[in-house]
Amino acid sequence: MTTFRGPLLVAVSGPDGAGKSSLVGRLAALLRERGVTVVSTHCYGCFLCRRFPVPPRVRETGEPGGDEWARRATDPERRGPRLRRAHAFLDAGELAARIAGARLLARARAHGGPAVVMTDRGPLDGLVKFDLPASSGAASAFRRIADGYGLTLLLETGPVTLRGRGWEETAGPPTAWWARYRSWSRRVPTIARLDGERAPSLVAGVALERILDEVRERERAASVPERDTDGHRPHVVVSIYDDADNPAYRGGGALVVGKVARRLAEDFRVTVVTAGRHGGSEDRNGIRYVRVPVGRAGPRAGQLLFLAALPFVARRIRHDLWLESFTPPFSTSFLPLTTGAPVVGIDQGRSAEALWRRYHLPFFLVERLGLRCYRHIVALNAADGSAIRRLSPRADVQVIPNGVEQRRLDESLLGAGQFILFLGRIDTWVKGLDLLLDAYDRARPPLDLLLAGSGTPAEERRLAALVAAHTGGPRPRIHWVGYADEERKRQLLRDSAFLVMPSRHETFGLVALEGMSYGKPVLHFDLPALRWMRDGGDVAVPPFDVAAFGARMTELATDTALRRRLGHRAGIAARHYTWDEMTGRYLALSHRLLDSPAAVRRPRRRGSSWQTTR
Q1: 95 within some domain
Q2: Is 328 left (phi over 0), alpha (psi -120 to 50) or beta?
Q3: Partner of 87 at 20 to 30 A CA spacing, among 132, 147, 348, 358?
Q4: Which ranges in 18-64 belong to alpha helices (H)?
Q5: Hey, how many other C-beta atoms are within 10 angstroms of the C-beta on 544?
Q6: DSSP of 527-546
Q7: Rg of the Cα trace of the chain?
């Protein structure tokens, strides 16, 4: 069982007028929506400050300089050093008392669950307000209080904005105060700086992610995996139809599951259930792989058989937690109805709506019904996360994006490239290859187009016919190079000018993130699921507007300086998506579910295990 080391203490700091109180209100509401107990306390200084308000700076009439500002609350010549230190001790004492009361209230309300105490002023603000010597006792008191905070959000607002809010009339020049904040913030732990010039909703979104990351990290640190009755570590099973050895798919989902499985294996026993032409199991890198023999039925029928077989497999393999990567066309397999252990649905292949548009078959009806069976779902992007919350209001939906290998960005190669690249699974309708070839044929950009990827035999024949229909003239300018292994893929990414992603449907677009890590711009249709790339070196055009897609393709192919600027932004944006952080979130989620009281009570162990004892 997970035991929390008290509520997480979060301070929102910054000058008065920076919007601290409104940000605390927004964050409290967003955290409560995610099931976190929140207690907010307002700390506007000690009771003397509230009873006898004194501006921290006041202009003295007749003072030399005229426009200068003189200290009143913190100047030893005007208040006296002893009185100033006593005032600081009083302020720190009342802050500590308020925090202690809020923590007790949070513990009582949380009943052992995650809790957050938020203050719209913290020790950093006290240090800045009194500006005492770092060696003084009062400064040490504020720093001891700061050590108890898990996170301090410093809301950075420019001097111009503060002046526009009338701040200078009561507080003095903002630049002087910001100099103090910068100086004291180096002495306070766990500082997270927020850009207060952005829209309040964006600031709240960034702050929310930082707080949730800290909550998950505390859960992970506090959790101790319980041993099962056989003396082994808890057993986690990850299921996915796709596999790196499946020639018809070999998509990004298999790569993600491999990364997640290796991270989970640090703390748990891990089994990966996937499809194959032959049944059986094998151990690889400390992970057990079990293959369901449905591959001979073909890719479409194989997916249906895999979905049908998964509940029976779950009743044969003993497990404490199951992570299910959704499989088309129905996505869900109603797996939570067949096991008492927690099940986490991973939305890497929820495509029922796209298949409805393509085939006019109501797969989405089964998908919507199945989603309501899940209490824990992981989405790869915010748009899909919002859609799943509407379809399954009772589910705990977390957004965990994919990651990418971090590499050094070579500034000298930005903007360079010999061709336009499409890289991905060959599926003409879903990946929009027909739209891409039409746009290329109309616009005729000066760079050749390379298509790299493989798919089912039927899809490859369809693409070959499309390429032949769009290839004319003495020298072909559209080249399909087939499947690219890892080395070939890296070479294509390095040598390309930019990537194109004309998909009609995506859940994340891992290839786009890989291209961004090489400093390559990405041209795509403006799908909600791809808006995580916004302002990250991407170029978005209205969905399925072939003419606009071709025009932007020509613009990127002819403008080296534009590619250089966009490529630099893409490389910087890719640094925020690391495999370590992404897999760490899966690990924290697994610990939370396995160490909760419900996870101890509910697991059922039916039948004999398919794996050998390790």
Answers
A1: yes
A2: beta
A3: 147
A4: 20-33, 47-51
A5: 14
A6: -GGGGGGTTTTEEEESTT-H
A7: 29
Sign of torsion, CA 209 212 218 220?
negative
What is the distance between the alpha carbons of residues 238 and 191, in angstroms, rounded to a whole number?
Answer: 36
Amino acid at 426: I
Which of 263-277, 302-316, 491-505, 523-537 has the lowest average pLDDT? 302-316
List the one residue out of 99, 102, 213 whose CA is nearest residue 147.
Answer: 99
If one counts the domains in the chain, the total is: 3
Q: Which of 198, 222, 246 lies at the terminal end of a domain, its last residue? A: 222
Answer whether residue 609 is part of any domain: no
User: C-alpha 331: how far from its chain's center?
Assistant: 22
Indicate the DSSP class of residue 95. H
Can you tell me the distance from the alpha carbon of 13 to that of 10, in angstroms, rounded to the nearest whole number? Answer: 10
In single-letter form, the type of residue at position 105 comes to L
pTM score, whole prediction: 0.59
CATH at residue 352: 3.40.50.2000
Identify residue 90 by its one-letter amino acid code: L
For residue range 4-49, list pLDDT tens digits in order. Answer: 457 899 988 887 777 788 888 889 999 988 889 999 887 666 555 5
Same domain, 461 and 587: no
- Looking at the structure, tell me whether residues 214 and 307 fall in a common domain: no
Backbone angles phi, psi at 112, to 5 degrees: 90, -5
Which residue in 301, 300, 324, 297 sits closest to 313, CA to CA? 324
Residues 23 and 118 in one domain: yes
> What is residue 244's predicted lDDT score, i.e. its pLDDT?
62
Say yes or no: 242 and 323 in one domain: yes
CATH of residue 17: 3.40.50.300
Which residue segment(s) compose the domain that 314 sits in?
235-403+580-601
Residue 355: Cβ within 10 Å count: 21
Q: Is residue 162 part of a domain?
A: yes
| Amino acid in the structure at residue 64 | P
- Cα dihedral 455→459→464→469 (10° resolution): -140
The pLDDT value recorded for residue 223 is: 56
Same domain, 570 and 584: no
CA angle 596, 600, 602 (to 5 degrees): 110
DSSP per residue, 398-412: EE----B------GG
Check whether residue 507 and residue 527 sit in a common domain. Answer: yes
- 315 and 215 in a common domain: no
Residue carrying the six token digits 């910068």? 182
CB contact burial 154-182 (16+ within 10 A = b; e otherwise): bbbbebeebeeeebbeebbbbeebbeebe
Cis previous bond, 329, omega within 30: yes
The secondary structure of 142-164 as a DSSP string is HHHHHHT-SEEEEEE--HHHHHH
Tokens of 215: 């909550």
593: which strand partners? none
At residue 72, the pLDDT reads 41
User: Domain boundary at 222, 250, 266, which?
Assistant: 222
The candidate with the shortest Cα–Cα distance to 505, out of 438, 429, 426, is 429
Mean pLDDT of the chain: 80
Query: Do residue 552 and residue 441 come from a single domain?
Result: yes
